[in-house]
Amino acid sequence: MSALNADEVIAAGLAAGLDAVGVAPAEPFESTRATLVERRGQGLHGGMAFTYRNPDRSTDPGRTVAGARSLVVGALGYRRRIPVAPDRAVGRVAAYARRDYYATLREALREVAELLRSAGHEAAVVADDNALVDREAARRAGLGWYGKNSNILLPGQGSWFVLGSVITTAALEQSNPVPDQCGPCRRCLDGCPTGAIVAPGVVDARRCLAWLVQADGDFPLEFREALGDRIYGCDDCQEVCPPNRAAESDRARAEAGSGDLDDDIAWVDLVDLLQLDDDELMARYGRWYIPRREPRYVRRNALVALGNSGRRNDPAVIDILHRYLSDPDPMLVRHADWAASRLGVRSVEPV
Fold first, then answer.
1. Residue 257 — pLDDT band, cuts 50, 70, 90?
2. Residue 282: inside a domain, yes or no?
3. Which of 116, 166, 159, 160 has its CA nearest to residue 141?
């Protein structure tokens, strides 16, 4: 078994394209497990499974890799300039979902895992997986601190990062922790459009738009107007965060004049989306989390966004709404009815 130190492993992660890398011990996250159990008991998970499904597993790296001793945790930045919205009915996609950033993250973590395996250690990549609470792993690895919106903030860089880990049997020196730097700021609490951040670090998923667009059933009536033009995810609590705004200003200056066109899926044509058949819709957007892999939920979100578009004089919008008013899916009929009523086009004949 070859000797490896933490600096070598961290350097390998950075060379693979990660923006930040740290090391944490692979001890069980006892306090995190207790929090998951408590919040699930209070209903704050809103029916979300993910790491709530099995807290004993998602807070114990040793359940994934027997004899685990260390976590090598990586962060990959995803925030880029957002193109100007087209002059038509469009839906907004949260920054992390505009590309498959997790695929890029996993590939970089695999390079770290291969280095560890080549030295004779066991290593497994875990990212966007219910096997591990990645934010707590990142905190323990010294990447950042918990913001009051429950996201991890990296010093000088903010929270626009996807996170993942390599669980390994290698014994590596732990990175230094990062102290809380939010201070008295509460902009994320006050800036949430539905008041979902009910206390510093506590999010009620039953009110969180980022979760509700992924939940099954009807979209809650009381939050449909708050959804606005979003069809997947919500970035509001990150957009108002002062460290993020400072980091974005630095990034904007770096990108100015680069001529690099952003090809991310930041905006989706709602009428076009609602005309796709199931196979076409899943081919375009299937990497998103969609309940039971049923395209109807993406259409549900698009209908709500269409109702919030204000485009009551757009013939294409009126036509697609009337088409969905007679859809065989009762859930889509209900959302089309709401959208048509909100736009005031129920009495308009289809074109």
1. very low
2. no
3. 166
Task: Give me the number of domains the chain comprises.
Answer: 1
d(CA 64, CA 130): 11
Active site residues: 128
The string of pLDDT tens digits covering residues 26-81 is 999 999 999 999 999 999 999 998 899 899 999 999 999 999 999 999 999 998 78
Strands 90-93 and 230-232, bridge-based pairing: parallel
For residue 100, which phi and psi values (nearest 5 degrees)? -85, 75
Dihedral (Cα; 169, 170, 173, 175), 10-degree rounding: -60
**By the 8 A CB rule, do 105 and 74 touch?**
yes
Mean local confidence (pLDDT), 184-199: 97
Find the CATH number of the domain harbouring 51: 3.40.109
Domain annotation covers residue 53: yes
- Tell me how far CA of residue 294 lies from CA of 93, 100, 199, 291, in angstroms: 18, 20, 33, 6
Domain contains 252:
no
Which of 73-77, 247-251, 322-326 is the least confident region?
Answer: 247-251
| Residue 62 per-residue DSSP state | G
Nearest CA-CA partner of 229 in 193, 262, 281, 182: 193
| Tokens representing residue 291 in the block | 């309940």
H or E element in which residue 318 lies: helix 315-325
Does the global pTM surpass 0.90? Answer: yes
Neighbours of 351 (CB within 10 A): 10
Distance, CA of 219 to CA of 209 (rounded, Å): 10
Q: Which two tokens stand for residue 187?
A: 């902009």
- Residue 70, beta-bridge partner list: 25, 168
Please check the confidence at residue 252 and state whether its pLDDT lies above 60: no
Least confident window among 35-39, 103-107, 345-349:
345-349
Residue 135 lies in a domain: yes
| CA–CA separation, 261 and 330 (whole Å) | 41
